[in-house]
Write a structure and sequence with these properties.
By secondary structure, this protein is an alpha/beta fold. Helices cover 52% and strands 9% of the residues. The chain folds into four domains: 43 residues, no CATH class; 184 residues, P-loop containing nucleotide triphosphate hydrolases (Rossmann fold), CATH 3.40.50; 71 residues, Orthogonal Bundle (Helicase, Ruva Protein, domain 3), CATH 1.10.8; 167 residues, Methane Monooxygenase Hydroxylase, Chain G, domain 1 (Up-down Bundle). It has a five-stranded parallel beta sheet with strand order 2-3-4-1-5, sandwiched between helices. Strands 7-6-8 form a three-stranded antiparallel beta sheet.
Length: 497
Amino acid sequence: MEAYWKEALAGVGIGVVVALAVWGVDVTPILVMAGLVILMQMMLTGRLTGGRKLEAVTVDAKNSIASPVTFDDIGGQETAKRELLEALEFINNRARCDQLGIRPLKGILLAGPPGTGKTLLAKAAAGFTNSAFVAASGSSFIEMYAGVGAQRIRQLFAKGRQAAAQQGKDSAVIFIDEIEVIGGKRGRHSSHLEYDQTLNQLLVEMDGIQGDADIRVLVVGATNRPDLLDPALIRPGRFDRVVRVDLPDKQGRLHILQIHSRNKPLAPNVDLEKIAGETFGFSGAHLESLLNEAAILALRQGSDLIREQDLREALEKVMLGEKLERKPREEERRRVAYHETGHALVSEMLRQGSVSSVTVTPRGQALGYVRQNPDGDYYLYTKQQLLDQIAVALGGAVMEEMFFGSLSTGSKGDFQQAVDAARQIIDSGMSALGVVSREHAPPEDINREVQAIITAQETRVRQLLGARSSLAQQLAEELLREEKLSGARFRELLKAS
């Protein structure tokens, strides 16, 4: 019936325009206005925006149920969980909070690197408080059309309250991922005020959250860049708590591995604690991917169990990427073998047992690589540790120059690592310059000190490898034949030589 009336009105409108034109009336303004109306109608129905209606937030209240994710399903974030649980007490213990005159928290900001579990924490918070859970991404609020983002913010909060009412709950958790997209400092987008209007509407909505309302609303935001957020958004009364969700330590990584291996058949010789020790810097998402890739490798091999070698292969795949089909020329392959042997030999001489594997198999962007065993999680480094890092980074280039008489572009990344470590020494006041600000010190002084640090370590590496040139050559030739040597095998060859 609706379609019939639309067609009838369209027919009448066309007839009127034709009649006016016959009578000599200029119908150009009418045609322009009609075109604008049709264009707006197409935008509102999603025909010009990839099927996405401008007035709709991508949230379905009927499906916005509390997630079955619990805090027990999240590993490696014990501190963040404790902070979050404490902040959620105002929902679970409403009477006690009212008795003490506690103002309910309006917002909690989860800040940390990608893949650390911020979304899972938000879902667990909704489950813990028996709240309706409504989620949206910051990028879904921004369009080129002014006012759309502010409208979607209003709809998101309305959807949260509506979902809670439909489910018979007295609270709702509204989760906004990538909140820095709409919560960035105002004034940065001078040519696009849509960002500022969207943020202003979010501030208004958070100010409108009432603690004595029938449905209490908690806004949980997640960001990788809290430094980009507008101060008005993260002040008390809006986002009252900022919870750091950092990369897990060794115990946290072990917990995450244990959680994600619950439904996976591991071989008896698999040592998850050892894997946790070798994955410093991995996020929860990396660890989940590691176990998943290991399971895929076991499936390819026709094995019913995930074995130690599957996990080792998966670890290298997650770190460096898939093996490549490209085959370097024999001359290049030989240079790569000597280069990687230089890294591994210097590493073993400076810290015995540090090499986990060394290979000349191309993977990702690397033609070869050395994977090292960290001897623990380090959050502070001494000057000697940084100097040793520089020495290991220079080992490949020095080895190439010793045996081939020239360098190659394969050392570019190593040199950058060496420079970064040298600058860290300077910034920490551990260089000959003493305590100095890199921003205020003359650039030539900084560059001169960086060069001095790297030159000293290059001399040190030349002495280490020069005294063992025949051993280095034997190890490189063995690596060339075998293509890959485990750390244990590499140390066997060292002892036998």
